[in-house]
């Protein structure tokens, strides 16, 4: 369960994640986080827990020409995919809790949907704040709680009934920072001043029920926890029990909001 709780995937799953999970869940947020950080041409930007680089590439498009972008992740499989997209980005393997950059190196530091998985969240936040120059902007997105995310609340309940709490917890992990008061307090405890937390609507979108299940299992760490027979059983059960999220054209859509935390270093 260690890989699951840390949000890590295998090299093969990284390709599935990039091709299918990114458009289903993450792509719509890259522009929003970049807006929240006020990115513009000529800036130096760091994307922490960059994954396959959807936010990093958005940042690069906004700061070039003249600007620079670094993307850091601890997962080599994710970075291998990211490099294929844009070899000009400074892709780095590393831990958010120990950023390999000098104090005040960046005009903006961004991160989307990684903070939930950091081993020491306070240390990671303090590091992001440390490498931000005076006047620089921090923008960090995390998912809102499962109580605001009906599709994954239902999917998690189904998986728990079928396979137990340990497997279900792998899907609960991304939603562990849904409490905005706790989230704000975490940043303040790490030394970040004048923290703002905005909850922004979003939408999860999958081509079908079967594809939703496939991506959760094959593009996420559930592939380490559910065997082929259980996977087929989950698809059958999802078709029966999760029909409320299926649209008239057979696609799956449901509300999937996020909290965006912002601050400006004085």
Description of the structure:
This protein has 266 residues and is of the alpha/beta class. It has a single domain (2-264), classed as Rossmann fold (3-Layer(aba) Sandwich), CATH 3.40.50.150. The protein is 44% helix and 20% strand. It has ten helices and nine strands. The chain has helices spanning 2-5, 11-36, 54-63, 76-85, 121-130, 150-163, 165-172, 180-189, 209-218, 228-241; strands at 44-48, 68-73, 90-93, 106-112, 132-143, 196-200, 203-206, 252-255, 258-264. The protein has a seven-stranded mixed beta sheet with strand order 3-2-1-4-5-9-6, sandwiched between helices. Strand 4, helix 5 (121-130) and strand 5 form a beta-alpha-beta unit. Helix 2 (11-36) packs across helix 3 and helix 2 packs across helix 4 (76-85).
In short:
The chain has 266 residues and is α/β, with parallel strands linked by helices. It contains ten helices and nine strands. It has a seven-stranded mixed sheet, with helices on both faces.
CATH 4th-level superfamily:
Vaccinia Virus protein VP39
Q: How many β-strand runs? A: 9
- What's the domain count? 1
Q: What does the largest sheet look like?
A: 7 strands, mixed
How many DSSP H or I helices? 10
Give the neighbour order of strands across the main sheet: 3-2-1-4-5-9-6
What is the structural class? alpha/beta
Q: What is the name of the CATH topology?
A: Rossmann fold
What form results from the Cα inertia axes? globular
Q: What order do the SSEs take from the amino end to the carboxyl end, as H and E?
A: HHEHEHEEHEHHHEEHHEE
The proportion of residues forming helix, as a percent range, comes to 40-55%
What is the CATH class designation? Alpha Beta
Overall mean confidence score, pLDDT: 94
User: What is the CATH architecture annotation?
Assistant: 3-Layer(aba) Sandwich
Runs in which pLDDT lies below 50 for 5 or more consecutive residues are 1-11
Please give the alpha-carbon distance between the first and last residues. 40 Å
């Amino acid at each position: 369960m260690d890989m699951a709780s840390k949000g890590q995937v295998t090299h093969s799953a990284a390709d599935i994640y990039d091709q299918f999970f990114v458009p289903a869940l993450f792509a719509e947020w890259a522009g929003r986080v970049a807006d929240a950080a006020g990115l513009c041409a000529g800036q130096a930007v760091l994307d922490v827990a960059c994954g396959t680089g959807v936010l990093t590439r958005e940042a690069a498009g906004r700061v070039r020409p003249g600007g620079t972008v670094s993307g850091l992740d601890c997962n080599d499989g994710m970075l291998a995919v990211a490099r294929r997209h844009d070899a000009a980005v400074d892709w780095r393997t590393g831990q958010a809790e120990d950023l390999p950059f000098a104090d005040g190196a960046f005009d903006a530091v961004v991160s989307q949907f990684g903070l939930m998985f950091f081993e020491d969240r306070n240390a990671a936040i303090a590091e992001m704040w440390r490498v931000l120059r005076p006047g620089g902007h921090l923008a960090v997105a995390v998912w809102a709680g499962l109580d605001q995310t009906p599709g994954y609340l239902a999917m998690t309940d189904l998986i728990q009934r079928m396979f137990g709490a340990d497997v279900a917890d792998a899907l609960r992990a991304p939603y562990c920072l849904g409490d905005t008061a706790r989230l704000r307090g975490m940043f303040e405890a790490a030394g970040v001043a004048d923290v703002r937390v905005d909850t922004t609507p979003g939408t999860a979108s999958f081509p079908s029920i079967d594809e939703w299940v496939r991506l959760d299992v094959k593009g996420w760490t559930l592939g380490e926890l559910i065997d082929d027979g259980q996977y087929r059983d989950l698809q059958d059960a999802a078709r029966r029990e999760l029909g409320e999220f299926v649209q008239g054209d057979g696609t799956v859509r449901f509300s999937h909001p996020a909290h965006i935390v912002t601050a400006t270093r004085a």
